[in-house]
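FAQ: What does a ligand-bound record look like?

Like this one, built around uridine-5'-diphosphate-glucose:
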Amino acid sequence: MKVTIFGTGYVGLVTGACLAEMGNHVLCVDIDVAKIERLRRGEIPIYEPGLEAIVRRNHAGGRLDFTTEAAPAIAHGELIFIAVGTPPDEDGSADLKYVLAVAASIGRHLDRYAVVVNKSTVPVGTADRVHEAVAAELAARGADVGFDVVSNPEFLKEGAAVDDCMRPDRIVVGASSERAVALLRKLYAPFNRNHDRMVVMDERSAELTKYAANAMLATKISFMNEIANIAERVGADVELVRQGIGSDPRIGYHFIYPGAGYGGSCFPKDVQALERTAHAHGYDARLLGAVEAVNRRQKDKLFELISRHFDGRLAGRTVALWGLAFKPNTDDMREAPSRQLMEALWQAGAKVRAFDPEAGEEAQRLYGRRDDLVLCEQAMDAVHGADVLAVVTEWKAFRSPDFAAIRVALAEPALFDGRNLYDPAVVEEAGLAYYGIGRGRSLRLPR
Ligand SMILES: NC(=O)c1ccc[n+]([C@@H]2O[C@H](COP(=O)([O-])OP(=O)(O)OC[C@H]3O[C@@H](n4cnc5c(N)ncnc54)[C@H](O)[C@@H]3O)[C@@H](O)[C@H]2O)c1
Ligand SMILES: O=c1ccn([C@@H]2O[C@H](COP(=O)(O)OP(=O)(O)O[C@H]3O[C@H](CO)[C@@H](O)[C@H](O)[C@H]3O)[C@@H](O)[C@H]2O)c(=O)[nH]1
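The answer part, i.e. the structure of the complex:
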């Protein structure tokens, strides 16, 4: 099929590449000229495992191309995806200016029936607004062209985006037109070979499904962080509690890892946006407000532990920091807990020596050159010359470090484990003070 995708970010590029891999002819459009030039040269602007090979193969095979021109892109696709950003505006609601700009542009150029497929995460009612924006432009030029708008939210996770896109749990399609549903069934048929993953519903339910999924996952994390903070105070170990509750299949082991708080481009903004939607409809969504508040507080947790360790005297101290990305397998630092921690440390007069397997360049872009930040090439380089070590992101490379070498390298051997990666007893045996999240220090069970 002929597919156009507006937006070549995490969602647009991955979707475009995977649809091309399934044999479709995909044209990706972006207003970012530099991004499109890089993509045409076969360079991938983001770090996403497996993506580069698929993009290069399909670009070379003539099934995937990139442009900055809206008109030929709209002429190309029988399915036109919108996968542009929906950042929060001043009050936390989703800002639809990019989505509506694409919709208007479709209306200005469309000259035969097409399905406009919205993949961006958008508030309930946006399909109607996109419909109106396209229709207004068609009317303005007196064009009598049929089109449908479908909601098709995306559930991929960064770091596993290609895999999620190739093997989705479900494909949610919100549509009121049979013609549009039939075209989407055809497009997604190769992804449904094993069993039908398509869940067809109305547009509003599809839009709400996306927010409900993210809000549920964020709620699980904040819940566990709340339990961790209780565990710390009562002398229990939240890691044992986690295993104790996860074994109940109604609860499950997934997404109940306590830590330094959730970050990324989705959970923080989507929980907030859903709360704003509820508010706009006269409902006070208290649970969502609490999920958000618990997370904001949790992102301060590592700083509090480090500050307490030094009795609040952080000026002149140096903290080694492992992990800048908001989670492993990405270079994305949007809303990353590492940022809140670094900024608080700087404010308190401390310096940071940081290492991340992929996000060093992004940190450089965000913070530029400054005296209180050294970006290191190796994990141990960050530790040498630091007083203490804080682990913020659970990259696999950090799972089993040489604690003895870390103890020798640190001036004040202490490890702040923001993801509960380590066994406190093992760390302490190596001669380092251990601080985790919700690990009451009075409890040490025999192994
Ligand atoms: N990142 C994720 O893991 C993820 C997962 C599911 C859903 N989402 C949602 O998908 C949407 C896109 O997210 P993302 O992370 O891919 O964003 P992103 O910021 O990585 O990419 C968005 C792209 O859209 C481009 N763009 C903006 N206006 C444009 C226009 N008029 N025409 C063409 N391109 C334009 C930007 O230049 C940018 O390259 C958001 O609504 C997000 O909430 C993201
Ligand atoms: O038990 C857990 C699981 C995750 N996290 C944190 O939660 C954040 C988000 O992680 P994850 O969900 O893996 O990453 P995203 O790429 O943001 O993906 C989420 O957001 C996307 C955008 O909407 C959705 O498509 C995905 O389904 C949804 O998982 C990260 O900071 C993680 O460190 C925890 O603290 N504890």
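Follow-up question: can I read anything off the structure? Yes, for example: The chain has a mean pLDDT of 96.
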